[in-house]
Amino acid sequence: MKSAARDIVSRVISNERIADRIHDIRFALHSAAEPPLPGQFAHVSVPGVFLRRPISIAGFDPASRIARLIVRVAGRGTDILSHMKTGDETRMTMPLGNPYPIRELTGGEIPDIWLVGGGIGAAPLLYAADYISRLAGGRAGIKTFLGFRDAAAAFGASEFEAYGETSLDIGGFVTDALTESLGKKIPDAILACGPAPMLSSLQKICARSGVRAYASLEERMGCGVGACLVCNCGISKDAGDEVSYKRVCRDGPVFPLPEVVFK
Amino acid sequence: MNMSVDLCGVKLKNPLIAASGTFGFGREYDELYDISCWGGISVKGLTNEPRTGNPPHRIAETSSGILNSVGLQNPGVDAFIREELPWLSRMGVVVIANVAGATTDDYTEAVRKLSDSPVDIIELNISCPNVKEGGVHFGICPKSVSKVTGAVRKRCLKPLMVKLSPNVSDIASVARAAEDAGADAISLINTITGMAIDARTRRPILANITGGLSGPAIKPVALRMTWQASKAVAVPVVGMGGIDTGTDAAEFLIAGARAVMIGTANITDPTAGPRIRAELENFMSENGVDDANELVGSLRTD
Ligand SMILES: Cc1cc2nc3c(=O)[nH]c(=O)nc-3n(C[C@H](O)[C@H](O)[C@H](O)COP(=O)(O)OP(=O)(O)OC[C@H]3O[C@@H](n4cnc5c(N)ncnc54)[C@H](O)[C@@H]3O)c2cc1C
Ligand SMILES: Cc1cc2nc3c(=O)[nH]c(=O)nc-3n(C[C@H](O)[C@H](O)[C@H](O)COP(=O)(O)O)c2cc1C
Ligand code: FES
Description:
The complex is a heterodimer of chains A (263) and B (302).
Chain A: E1 6-19, E2 22-28, E3 41-44, E4 53-56, E5 59-61, E6 66-72, H1 76-82, E7 89-96, H2 102-106, E8 113-118, H3 122-135, E9 143-148, H4 157-161, E10 166-170, H5 174-182, E11 189-193, H6 196-209, E12 213-216, E13 232-235, E14 244-247, E15 254-256
Helix pairs in contact in A: 5-6
Chain B: E1 5-7, E2 10-12, E3 16-18, H1 27-30, E4 40-42, E5 59-62, E6 65-68, H2 77-88, E7 94-99, H3 104-115, E8 121-125, H4 142-155, E9 160-163, H5 171-180, E10 185-188, E11 192-195, E12 197-198, E13 203-204, E14 210-214, H6 219-232, E15 237-240, H7 246-255, E16 259-262, H8 264-268, H9 272-286
The structure holds flavin-adenine dinucleotide (FAD), flavin mononucleotide (FMN) and FE2/S2 (inorganic) cluster.
Flavin mononucleotide sits between chains B (19-22, 44-45, 68, 70, 72, 98, 125, 128, 163, 190-191, 214-215, 218, 240-243, 262-265) and A (222, 228, 230).
């Protein structure tokens, strides 16, 4: 696949704090940028730190060409990003990486897709929910399972509710409510993003119930485009197969969950 | 304005070469811009057999550079020749095959295969700090540099460039050892061994514990070594380490480099190639330099 990524200048048009250390930043995209898909990310240049920062696309409006990034303050780079003001400009390469295979999954039918997000992992799923809903003409019943470490850090729940049934877990395991729901019904697929322990336990649950699942992974990045090989994650096509390293930035960040090898 | 330079009989249309390990085999960056703007491309370090490399994390950030511990992940020299080279050799750039190995036989076998391929230059990487055997061990003392260079020279039908490690006490004697053993050119510097620690968890950030430092952080060391090596040998020197602007590139040429390589700048700015090329041309026209060769070794110390 020939990537359509471009290195572009984007301008902040708003920056709103939506939860504890969580900022919702909207960028007006340069005309050269290709529309991103859910699961893809931007590699964002942050003034004052050396490397760019990978941030998932949390929303994109094709009409206004406004992209949304939801940033959790995790360290120096994301702290500087969270302080960007309306009118500030920065370079970003986007859209990068492979998206969630939503079109392949839906195959023209009204999809039954569930979303599982932990913490900042809810960000790319917001775009997935919006995208699936638009594909299905608003008739997709998207079930969402969200987990946050505490109430102050929770975001997005009311937005997800507009797309379908949403369960919110604070301080526990997001997978508990999921396991219960899977006992009643198996969806076409699960799309997930969150911390590795959550994804690892989700992997076991999905294997048990035989549901297809895709997860977006994180790893420290250099180039973000697939050239430097620093963002490796272990992938094994079939259980027992040899583990090979794939690039999170280029071969992912979305991988079929059964193939991911957790440490 | 003449930007072209001659590197051991190979003509580069400009003195800018993408440094090994930061540019893959060129395909990813060719999607962002036309990679023929480079004078040359040094591909990801190749070994005779495929290598999986080190576990994550492989990168740590510093205030003006990065530490990496990729550990020579590559598909092996056969797959490179079969799957990557046919495409890359049509791109209008000089192709430099960067070769590494754990033993002298690994080096000679890979170089033998590459000698039958359309690569333009072979760059012997005896300076990778991120692998347990071989790599930098060959590059740390003049005697082992001489041994591996001499063994490869016998099998090498292409111009041979030897890439030196900065992790040595006397770069001039290492450069001379490579030249005496048959190197047609010297490139330097590879990364400087370093480490990063997460104080909160008291753990190293890199799974490999140590890694190689690159980027602007190492530029002063790289400039100094480029200057020292170019005074020590008669063969051309290719300088690198922290080049991020056209003026940085000019500084290396002035220090004595015939050409320069650009690595980490590709990582921090994916369009560094065309940008630095335009900046170097600007620098030359603003300073009344109409031939890049005029800069080479023009350092004034009077
Ligand atoms: C594909 C992808 C999508 C992401 N999407 C989002 C998102 O939508 N919103 C959001 O807030 N965060 C997202 N992240 C995580 C975000 O990139 C990190 O939180 C951020 O890089 C941390 O930078 P820092 O300077 O604040 O932290 P520091 O800890 O100071 O960073 C030090 C270095 O480690 C890297 N690093 C630290 N944590 C991570 C991490 N979790 N993942 C990758 N690199 C890391 C940094 O990039 C930097 O190079 C995503 C990560 C990936 C890989
Ligand atoms: C991620 C990464 C991978 C590298 N891999 C190789 C390699 O395979 N072979 C090699 O000779 N040098 C390798 N290098 C070293 C660079 O080619 C270069 O010598 C060094 O980074 C200094 O230049 P810079 O500061 O412009 O990056 C690598 C550097 C980086 C950052
Ligand atoms: S960050 Fe360079 S290959 Fe993924």
